[in-house]
């Protein structure tokens, strides 16, 4: 499987509409890969709190429309990162959108863990409540967003739902970059799964971004890592390695706590 992580520089001088068109063009350039991943809140910037409500859009809004067309034009599965979503009840969510190669909206994930400690995203956005997986040819993807990476129980739940590959768009700050790498590798090792974690570059809302998007295999080995600036990180990986790893070292079978009981 071939994946491209688009580490976008969210520049304050660039309008949302201009960035939307630029990113759509970058997605189209990835024709020939299987999966393209964008960062969290790349239209506004993850720390541009004043823009969340102003730039919020529906699931049929301009970003969804542009990304659906780009996915279809390139013939790729596209995790279009996340956007501020204006829900029908008026709530604003941090919402990830996944599109199929035909441009259909295949999955919607509203971020469960909101960052901010009683300010910022934590008070400006609603919390999602559903785990989301998407079946791609060759692997089942579990979807999480940025701050979710700090909550291992979410990833255990995704494993119980069949996830073999985690896709994590983020707007992670540079000052905690060491945690970004550490947590991505930890989630891979403890769940024996691939982790594709795509961050933003540059500085937005005066917060320098970590960049360093990363792809980690089920043994915790780093397959590819970006630098600090805008970059397209492309990597090939074998989804079959998840099953092989879980068979060779069946640690998940020894779970004693927190396992979701079987239905029926």
From TrEMBL:
GO MF term set: hydrolase activity
UniProt keyword list: Hydrolase
Pfam families found in the cross-reference section: CN_hydrolase (PF00795)
Matches recorded under PROSITE patterns: CN_HYDROLASE (PS50263), UPF0012 (PS01227)
All residue ranges annotated as the CN hydrolase domain in the record: 1-239
Keyword set includes Hydrolase: yes
SUPFAM superfamilies tied to this protein: Carbon-nitrogen hydrolase
Matching PANTHER family: DEAMINATED GLUTATHIONE AMIDASE, NITRILASE-RELATED
Family affiliation: Belongs to the carbon-nitrogen hydrolase superfamily. NIT1/NIT2 family.
Protein name listed in UniProt: Carbon-nitrogen family hydrolase
């Amino acid at each position: 499987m071939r994946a491209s992580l688009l580490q976008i520089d969210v520049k304050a001088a660039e309008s949302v509409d201009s960035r939307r068109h630029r990113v759509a063009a970058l997605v189209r350039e990835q024709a020939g890969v299987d999966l393209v991943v964008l960062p969290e809140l790349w239209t506004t910037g993850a720390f541009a709190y004043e823009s969340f409500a102003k730039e919020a859009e529906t699931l049929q809004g301009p970003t969804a429309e542009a990304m659906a067309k780009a996915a279809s034009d390139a013939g790729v599965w596209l995790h279009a990162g996340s956007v501020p979503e204006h829900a029908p009840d008026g709530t604003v969510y941090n919402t990830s959108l996944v599109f199929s190669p035909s441009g259909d909206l295949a999955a919607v994930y509203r971020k469960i863990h909101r960052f901010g400690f009683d300010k910022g995203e934590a008070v400006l956005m609603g919390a999602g409540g559903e785990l989301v997986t998407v079946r791609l040819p060759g692997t089942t993807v579990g979807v999480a967003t940025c701050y979710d990476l700090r909550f291992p129980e979410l990833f255990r739940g995704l494993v119980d739902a069949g996830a073999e590959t985690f896709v994590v768009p983020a707007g992670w700050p540079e000052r905690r970059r060491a945690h970004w790498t550490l947590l991505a590798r930890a989630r891979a090792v403890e769940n024996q799964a691939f982790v594709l974690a795509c961050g933003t570059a540059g500085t937005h809302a005066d917060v320098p971004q970590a960049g360093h998007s990363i792809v980690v295999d089920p043994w915790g080995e780093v397959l590819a890592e970006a630098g600090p600036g805008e970059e397209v990180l492309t990597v090939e990986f074998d989804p079959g390695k998840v099953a092989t790893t879980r068979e060779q070292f069946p640690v998940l079978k020894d779970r004693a706590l927190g396992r979701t009981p079987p239905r029926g």
